[in-house]
Amino acid sequence: MSHESIRNIGIISHIDAGKTTVSERILFYSGETHKMGEVHNGQAVMDWMPQEQERGITITATATSCRWGDLRINLIDTPGHIDFTIEVERSMRVLDGAVAIFSAVEGVQPQSESVWRQADRYAVPRICFINKMDRVGADHARTLSQMEERLGARPILLQLPLGDEADFSGVIDLLTEEALLFDRGDLGKTMLRRPLPLECVERVGEERLRLTEALADFDDSILADFLEGRRVSTERLRLALRSATLACRIFPVLLGSALRNKGIQPLLDAVGLYLPSPHEVPALVGRNPRDERHETVGCDPAAPLRALAFKVMCDEGRMLTYLRIYSGTLRFGATLLNASRGVSERVGRLFRMHSHRREDLTEAAAGDIVAVLGFRETFTGDTLCDAGHPLVLEGLTVPEPVVSVA
Ligand code: GDP
């Protein structure tokens, strides 16, 4: 698989907004259970919750890999407490993009504000999911205004809800102008695509125009078409949306109810459409411990290996080390140099971690996230390299915090 199709993402939210539920649903819709519950013609439904509970989905894993179409999504656990700057820096360094979850009832809460600011600080591109659209008092428009007022963000709504509160049954995709119906309640994974309901056509036309106008700020050809009253194709709107999202200038917003299995498939699609592959994020800088020279590390599988250990845990008496590979290719059985400590380490086993199994790998390339069994002296934050090419990855260049004067 090419590194182009990887997305290393974290989910950030205020406690209770639905991070756990969204993560579980992402693993369900994109995990191995996908094959079992494959939907044909939008009809087949399976009662998956009890099965999943028996299997015990591990959403607390440090990094869990899943598939969505051609995409490999590595879901990275982000620290619950954002006070520990070093922890935040590590997780922000490892993920390339994030899904920010808000509750449609509670809106922007204090913790969503602080994690948002951290992500701002590290320039992490984000898409937003306004969850709990099924609850009494859900108001996505209010949440959008709060994002503007409290976060100083520019949210871009990509969907309109179909039905309110308990009757929330789907969304209208403003880009494709079709209705997406999540009509199987708690039971299934069916999503039906339907033409717009007649009564919505006018409103959707207006909203799409508003979206076009917003994107015209980032794209001159869209601006020209907008001013001339020409329709801009979905593909062009997506491209503009993608580049503005990658630059953290706007934040696409989707709607749903994770608990009721509504809105997860479009969210997964949006992860692929609008969040960056490892290839599209700024290169890291490393320092050669032998001559103190600095080197940039781009996402190239043919370059020397540079991998960051971002979590070390004990696994039945052996160390399980999670690695983000920034460049090169990591191979099973290889002897590596821990450049941070000047010690050799051997890759005893190499895994991709799934929600309820480990997949043995023979190799993994730049951009990916894997776990290694068998390291002895590696700690969180260390860099692993090919023995002949030592380099210590350094912190992200973080702008100085703004000091406010009272
Ligand atoms: P976390 O603290 O952010 O991980 O939030 P959880 O995923 O644990 O959700 C907090 C509570 O909200 C739980 O009781 C969930 O069942 C509930 N919840 C999550 N998503 C939804 C939703 O879409 N609708 C409703 N009504 N409840 C939800």
UniProtKB/TrEMBL annotation:
Protein's recorded name: Elongation factor G
Entry keyword Transcription: no
Family, as annotated: Belongs to the TRAFAC class translation factor GTPase superfamily. Classic translation factor GTPase family. EF-G/EF-2 subfamily.
Superkingdom: Bacteria
Residues of the full protein shown: 1 to 406 of 684
UniProt domain Tr-type G: residue ranges: 4-279
Keyword Mitochondrion in annotation: no
GO terms classed as biological process: ribosome disassembly
Coiled coil (UniProt feature): none
Recorded GO MF terms: GTP binding; GTPase activity; translation elongation factor activity
Location relative to the cell: Cytoplasm
Summary of the function given for this chain in its UniProt record: Catalyzes the GTP-dependent ribosomal translocation step during translation elongation. During this step, the ribosome changes from the pre-translocational (PRE) to the post-translocational (POST) state as the newly formed A-site-bound peptidyl-tRNA and P-site-bound deacylated tRNA move to the P and E sites, respectively. Catalyzes the coordinated movement of the two tRNA molecules, the mRNA and conformational changes in the ribosome.
Alphabetical keyword list: Cytoplasm, Elongation factor, GTP-binding, Nucleotide-binding, Protein biosynthesis
Residue numbers binding GTP: 13-20, 77-81, 131-134
TM ranges: none
GO CC entries: cytoplasm
